[in-house]
Structure formats: structure tokens, C-alpha cells
Amino acid sequence: xxxxxxxxxxxxxxxxxxxxxxxxxxxxxxxxxxxxxxxxxxxxxxxxxxxxxxxxxxxxxxxxxxxxxxxxxxxxxxxxxxxxxxxxxxxxxxxxxxxxxxxxxxxxxxxxxxxxxxxxxxxxxxxxxxxxxxxxxxxxxxxxxxxxxxxxxxxxxxxxxxxxxxxxxxxxxxxxxxxxxxxxxxxxxxxxxxxxxx
Length: 198
Ligand code: VGL
Ligand code: ZN
What we know:
By secondary structure, this protein is an alpha/beta fold. The chain is 20% helix and 23% strand. It has a 6-stranded parallel sheet with strand order 5-2-1-6-7-8. A two-stranded antiparallel ribbon has the order 3-4.
């Protein structure tokens, strides 16, 4: 009972046709559903932004999609509007089996701070509560899958490793955005943090 599967942001907006589509984002859904059978604990995350969120380029006059901006907590990519609370884009991919989920954790609700990681907002200090949930259940090992490899999966894996969890990424069940070398940077950072990439 000490090993949890965490499925990151398998939502319509990150799949082909969505607002921030990750290439082949939907290709991992069936494999993730099958993998759930191997884990006693399954956790899903959901990117869940209020309209007008500060990570949206549309909230910054004069900025274009995928520009960088400086936020009080550091550099921030400016994204297309995506995963707005209550919209179809924010819903899980219809093929994802959500019945097995022990916990669905939402993130990115603070209008002023983006939240890639399932554990902390992008200030790297404001917690989502996931760590407490895992620790009180005695979970020590995490396998991560989902979208996107180089953003939310990467940040979640780095935080989990820093918190002392044993972390494995199922790369075959992740897909990346790959913005300006972000995928190779993510690979290097995860390797350095002791994350297993399989
Ligand atoms: C994500 C960009 C913005 C992700 C979320 O799930 O990787 N990326 N919000
Ligand atoms: Zn987001």
C-alpha cells in the first residue's frame, strides 16, 4: 500500500484539439488506465485556473503567447488561456478512467501564482496539501505519468524527490510540450534529482 500512481493533468485542453494541446497527449490515456490496476493508490491532478489567471498571455498587455514574464516568484511562461475552472477544457479526457481515483487534487487556483507541481505552487513554498495526504497514508514511492513531461510532470517529480519520495517517471505514458529545449532540461534536472526515468 506504499506505492501511489499519480496521473498529472490528463485534461482536454492538453490533448489534441485543446487550448494548450500537447502533441499525442491523448495517446497515453489507454496505457494509464491499464497501469492503474498495478497500484493500490491512484491520484489524479487537475490544472484548475480561474478566468484571467496571471499565467495567461491574455492577462498581460503587449505580451504574446509563450513569451516569458517576470513574476514575483521568478520567470513565468505565458500560456494560452487553458483549463479554466468548470469548462470542458478543464475536464479530464473522456477516456480517462477516473473511477479508480482515491484523490483528485486541483492546482493553479491562486490568480497570482502558477502551479505546475502537484505539491507546491510555482513559488515552490505554498503547498497543495498532497504531501500531507501521502505521508498520512504511509506512501513512500510514487510513479508519475501524464502531461506535460517538461512542465507539470517535471516540477512534480522534482518536488517529490526533494521531499524524500522515491520517484519513477513512466516516460512512455507522458508527453511533452518541448518549448525552447524544455524537454532536455527537464530530463537533466530529473536525472540530477535521482528520479528514475523508464
Ligand atoms: C501545464 C502549462 C501550463 C502542464 C499546466 O500540465 O504541464 N503546462 N499549465
Ligand atoms: Zn496551467
